[in-house]
Amino acid sequence: MVSSYVYLLGLSQFLTSALSANTGRVCAPETFASLSLPSIDVLSIDAKLNNASFDVDDSTNAYPVATNKTVEVCQLTVNYTHLGWNDNVTTWISLPVDNWNGRFMGMGGGGWIMGTRGRLSQAVFGGYAAASTNGGHDEAATVKSWGLSSEGNVNWANMQDFSAVSLDDTASLGKAATKMFYGKPHKYAYWNGCSTGGRQGHMMAQRYPTQYDGILAGSPAINWDKFIPSEFWPQMLMNALDYYPSACELNAFTEHAIDECDALDGVKDRIISVPGLCKYNATSLVGKTVQCSSNSTVKITPKAAKYVTLVWAGPQDPSGSSLWYGLSHDATLTRLAGTNCTLPSKNCQPIPFQISADWQQIFLARNSSLDVADITYTEYIRHFRQSVNEYSSIIGTRDPDLTDFKQAGGKMIAWHGMKDPLIFFNGTENYYRQAMEIDPSIQDYYRFFAAPGADHCKGGIGFYPGSSLDSLVNWVENGTAPDTLRAIATPTGTDSAKLPLRTADLCAYPKFLTYVGGDASKASSFTCK
Ligand SMILES: *[C@@H]1O[C@H](CO)[C@@H](O)[C@H](O)[C@H]1NC(C)=O
Ligand SMILES: *[C@@H]1O[C@H](CO)[C@@H](O)[C@H](O)[C@H]1NC(C)=O
Ligand SMILES: *[C@@H]1O[C@H](CO)[C@@H](O)[C@H](O)[C@H]1NC(C)=O
Ligand SMILES: *[C@@H]1O[C@H](CO)[C@@H](O)[C@H](O)[C@H]1NC(C)=O
Ligand SMILES: *[C@@H]1O[C@H](CO)[C@@H](O)[C@H](O)[C@H]1NC(C)=O
Ligand SMILES: *[C@@H]1O[C@H](CO)[C@@H](O)[C@H](O)[C@H]1NC(C)=O
Ligand SMILES: *[C@@H]1O[C@H](CO)[C@@H](O)[C@H](O)[C@H]1NC(C)=O
Ligand SMILES: *[C@@H]1O[C@H](CO)[C@@H](O)[C@H](O)[C@H]1NC(C)=O
Ligand SMILES: *[C@@H]1O[C@H](CO)[C@@H](O)[C@H](O)[C@H]1NC(C)=O
Ligand SMILES: *[C@@H]1O[C@H](CO)[C@@H](O)[C@H](O)[C@H]1NC(C)=O
């Protein structure tokens, strides 16, 4: 076997290419020549040795990278198109040359980015063979360039790739390449992602339930058809009320709400752990003067209070019925209610959260010259309905029936920061509750953990469960279901002066982290209730 490869490649190429000590397989396109799937036409396969480095996006809930290692990998780039779709997908596969741990990992993306080659480093540092995909569009490409096939027309092939299809391909191609390189199949397959990556993990469990043995899904962008339009609600409201709040005003409301509600959970730590107890009323700030900088102040108006109240409530239809959730009181408002002001509180212009504006402009209006500031309340409500009608089955990712995943023996851990300023915590809770109603024994294979005070995917002053992957592996391979997830709060900036490093064990829903007394920086001072 080895000698025939040597013969085919020629001696000099052999000397400069990798011959894995474990496997005898050469890292060259020939090794992977038969890589394909019935649904695709492979356009090119590139395979070469590379050193994975620490070029990772730090914002995903991925395998913790302790050191800036150098791990030699066989790096594959597979370009393909789906038969009859006229799409163009790139999938990256990284196979550690030495010390493969026998496992395979699919790595997720964030925002419009399906995945990146860089993120594979995190997995290969942990010994995993790993794969990720660009989902049919380059990460730097404008949404217009891949979302529309022409003005007025959605590129449905690219939308299907982004939603689901390329994820299934990536798992199949990645596993097949793993087997070709090591000469034996992987023992366990894991998914690891946060945000869009968390949605992708849920998509795998819902639609491709046999691909992954274990799925780690942080801050999941599930309920996409509803929550993405909801992210635009704060911007539409600014235009509807003709009121453009400064960050200074918005932060004043957030801080005031935290002052009022923080202690209701028993600990004064600027974290609202039991949001249901918070009855803060924004009108209580009306008339107060807020210091925005050393020489600038702003007086809070009734309109400001009305605005913030509506943002916290979330989108409502004309009858006053709620269409989706709002942000938690301790979540930063300025991500979705962004403005750009010339002075701390003067001449503010709206700055929509980009993904929510893209969704309105490209996927709903399908008009790349539309100014999203022109979207009226009536059009917004129409777009909301359109989003659900046209996209729920494609990218909603909220099918609560996980029977097939259960039967396949899969395990899934989801977690969500309770002060996430981008993806509404309550949407994930809502999904989990529905799944629990369908199958009361859901905890046997799918557990959800609320992370008080944690921001989107990580950060914030709250508890980030950075070692969840270890808990997942232990569940899949040892059968040890995690009742709690170890989490650490590492306050930064001004917070770090006031708060120590804290540890807590996050609770499996429907239980929540509950303070029972003692040093609030110690996990033993909390229980699950
Ligand atoms: C990877 O790094 C090692 C150690 O620095 C080096 O010997 C090797 O040549 C590098 N491999 C590649 C493909 O660059
Ligand atoms: C890791 O190493 C690479 C290559 O030496 C370097 O460019 C990068 O800055 C390092 N990253 C960190 C976080 O140390
Ligand atoms: C796919 O994209 C690559 C790189 O941009 C290009 O070389 C190739 O021609 C494209 N293939 C198809 C079928 O569009
Ligand atoms: C594969 O596609 C990528 C774009 O995703 C491109 O950079 C690369 O050149 C393509 N490879 C080949 C061999 O066409
Ligand atoms: C959101 O979830 C939290 C935690 O379960 C709960 O206390 C709160 O009432 C929920 N908010 C809404 C609007 O459902
Ligand atoms: C908030 O306070 C105002 C003024 O006291 C009152 O009119 C309003 O009903 C209150 N809102 C809620 C939700 O309690
Ligand atoms: C406030 O102070 C800054 C810096 O000292 C100065 O640039 C700015 O013009 C002042 N603004 C007002 C409204 O006085
Ligand atoms: C904010 O406004 C200034 C002045 O108009 C402009 O130069 C800057 O690019 C804007 N920033 C953003 C993030 O839009
Ligand atoms: C797209 O939006 C622009 C700017 O609002 C508008 O002038 C144009 O009529 C719209 N195109 C279509 C096809 O609706
Ligand atoms: C399985 O359990 C054993 C014994 O507790 C432990 O040493 C090992 O690390 C666990 N395996 C995994 C994959 O977590």
What tags apply to this protein structure?
globular; 19 strands; 2 domains; 529 residues; 9-stranded mixed beta sheet; binds 2-acetamido-2-deoxy-beta-D-glucopyranose; alpha/beta; disordered N terminus; Rossmann fold; two-stranded antiparallel ribbon; 15 helices
What is the element layout, followed by pairings?
Layout: H1 2-9, H2 11-16, E1 40-52, E2 71-82, E3 89-96, E4 103-107, H3 120-125, E5 129-133, H4 143-147, E6 148-150, E7 153-154, H5 156-182, E8 188-194, H6 196-207, E9 214-218, H7 224-241, H8 247-261, E10 289-293, E11 296-299, H9 302-313, E12 339-340, E13 349-350, H10 354-364, H11 377-396, H12 403-407, E14 411-417, H13 425-438, E15 446-451, H14 468-478, E16 484-489, H15 493-498, E17 502-507, E18 513-515, E19 526-528
Helix pairs in contact: 5-6, 7-9, 7-10, 7-11
Please, could you describe this protein's structure?
The protein has 529 residues and is of the alpha/beta class. The protein folds into two domains: 22-222 and 394-484, Alpha/Beta hydrolase fold, catalytic domain (Rossmann fold); 228-391, no CATH class. Helices cover 33% and strands 20% of the residues. The strands form six sheets. The chain has a nine-stranded mixed β-sheet, sandwiched between helices. The protein has a two-stranded antiparallel sheet with strand order 6-7. Strands 10-11 form a two-stranded antiparallel ribbon. Helix 6 (196-207) links the parallel strand 8 (188-194) and strand 9. Helix 5 packs across helix 6, helix 7 (224-241) runs antiparallel to helix 9 and helix 7 crosses helix 10 (354-364). The longest helix is centred in the N-terminal third of the chain and has 27 residues, at 156-182. The protein is globular and about 75 Å long. The chain binds 2-acetamido-2-deoxy-beta-D-glucopyranose (10 copies). The site of one 2-acetamido-2-deoxy-beta-D-glucopyranose has 3 residues, from loops. One 2-acetamido-2-deoxy-beta-D-glucopyranose binds at residues 281, 283.
